[in-house]
Amino acid sequence: MKTSIATVSISGNLREKLDAIAKVGFDGIEIFEQDFIADTGTPREIGNMIRDHGLEITLFQPFRDFEGLTGDARTRAFDRAKYKFDTMVELGTDLILVCSSTRPDSLGGIDRAADDFNELGQIAAERNLRVGYEALAWGRHVNDHRDAWEIVRRADHPNIGLILDSFHTLARKIDPNTIRRIPSDKIFFVQLADAPLIDMDFLYWSRHFRNMPGEGDLAVTEFMQAVAATGYDGPISLEIFNDQFRGGHPEGLARDGYRSLVALMDDVKRAEPDIKIEVPSIPERVTVEGVEFIEFATSGEEATALAQLLKSMGFAHAGDHISKNVALWKQGDIHVVLNQETTGFAHSAYVTQGTTICDVGLNVGNAAATSHRATALGAATFDQPVGPGEMDIPAIRSVGGSVMHFIDDQSGLSDVWSVEFTKSTDKPVTGAGLRRIDHVAETMNYDEMLSWSLFYTSIFDMHRTPMVDVIDPDGLVRSQAIKTRDGGARITLNGAETHRTLAGSFLAESFGGAVQHVAFATDDIFATARHMAAHGFEPLPMTGNYYNDLQARFGLETDQLGQMKDLSILYDEDADGAFYQFYSRPFGGGLFFEIVQRIGDYDGYGAPNAPFRIAAQKRLMRPKGMPRR
Hints:
Elements: E1 3-6, H1 14-24, E2 28-32, H2 33-38, H3 43-52, E3 56-63, H4 71-91, E4 95-99, H5 110-126, E5 130-134, H6 145-155, E6 160-165, H7 166-171, E7 187-192, H8 202-209, H9 220-229, E8 236-238, H10 250-271, E9 288-297, H11 300-312, E10 316-321, E11 326-331, E12 334-339, H12 344-353, E13 356-364, H13 367-376, E14 395-397, E15 403-407, H14 416-419, E16 421-423, E17 434-445, H15 449-459, E18 463-464, E19 468-472, E20 475-483, E21 490-496, H16 502-509, E22 515-522, H17 525-534, H18 544-554, H19 558-567, E23 570-574, E24 577-583, E25 592-600, H20 610-621
Parallel strand pairs: 1-2, 1-8, 2-3, 3-4, 4-5, 5-6, 6-7, 7-8, 9-12, 13-15, 17-21, 22-25
Antiparallel strand pairs: 9-13, 10-11, 10-16, 11-12, 14-15, 17-22, 18-20, 19-20, 20-21, 23-24, 24-25
Helix pairs in contact: 1-10, 3-4, 5-6, 9-10, 10-15, 18-19
């Protein structure tokens, strides 16, 4: 498989784009005309510069409004084409994209367009060039790849072929399986883009909201399966127009693009094992059983206060590391690690961010395969020296520079707690009924959400749920959950657009910290809350107005509502079930814990309660002396 990306897909000038594209492993680029024109080099110098980066120019684009013209307009169109052909020769590329005309004065008719392309093919052949025709979803007369293919077929010239773009086909809801009937030698090039499902003008949708395959809602995998079934073995390229990407980091965008292509083609190969396209051999998406542990970087009085908080929540000090200042706290299947080392990664995280969750461990089906797939998809590995008696557990870098470790049962890595930790001699503690980690909530800048969503869904067998808006008194936070099919592992991504929101202030105060809160699951939230209260736990208090409104909305029994009010328990329900939750008070730079109980098939996270939770947290976190609004 030859991977390619259009230079319009990422930010920066042409030279910055080339550096980023080459660094992450692409084979080639579609050079966008604006990038070429804006550069100071001559066409020959630019072509040589691209090849010096180890890249080839897979396509020159776009050439607009060519077919269906008459008189002087037609003559000028052919003159423009000849100029572009001469430029291509200097650049050192042999394929140009011609998109279907949008000119108001262009005439329809498949035979007329075919005649235009036959003549253009003869001119291209004189220079050993090829012309690819693409149907724009908003084309004046041609907006369907089936019509574009008929024009190419009737043009009947070896130098004229078809260019397919997933957006133009899928946006118009054209069945991608119609592609299977097109001869592979007449498909000159394939462009891929995903997009969220939005009901809007095709042109505006395409120019502003495209994203990488796997980041949107279009059936890009099915589209590519149809292409692969033809026997096509040419470049697979990304063409992404996205306002958010225009201000992003070139290398990060290029890495996301490469990750999306490799993951997509791996999916296609598994669905169509007989396809001829060569695809890198990587392990299949990995099963996540749950969150194995969370690790805090902490120190001194903050570590003491955190340990006391855990004790009030029913956690027991289960042991200490054999050679490091690291303590293990446990309850049910939950492992919480407090790392007070004065060297190494955790110490660096503490110095930078204060008490923070620096590491999350996932229990996976195969730790080695997980690491292999992650690195093949561009994830950065994490390594630090392994001391005597310690286990070498594979890990990668995750959100905000944090670490993610992979633990499995089959390799024995799940024995880390007995191998690396001595058993505590503390007096046994009665737990509060917390069983496992329900979800981990990660906070990031909003413009990073697509990237991290792709990160999780391309590596793991997890899927995205619809994005929801969380109303903060000082702004809006976008939230999206990534979860396994059985709900055994859940990660929520919360995107902040302003530092005034609670999520945004957490990012600012922690210098980009990732995990802001962890939710623990219980089977009896009332018993858990009473046990914790008896051991000194102070929940986040809710207002009386909240409970009065709750009564009006759901008609809860008076006794039940009274208990919820006394214990600061929040509630939500939907057609599938119900959800109880309560929170710790904020600690550190805005960290907090959540306790949840799911009833029936409730699959959400209590989003309607978020504004009231945030308001309560902000009341407690307001700096002393700061006037109330």
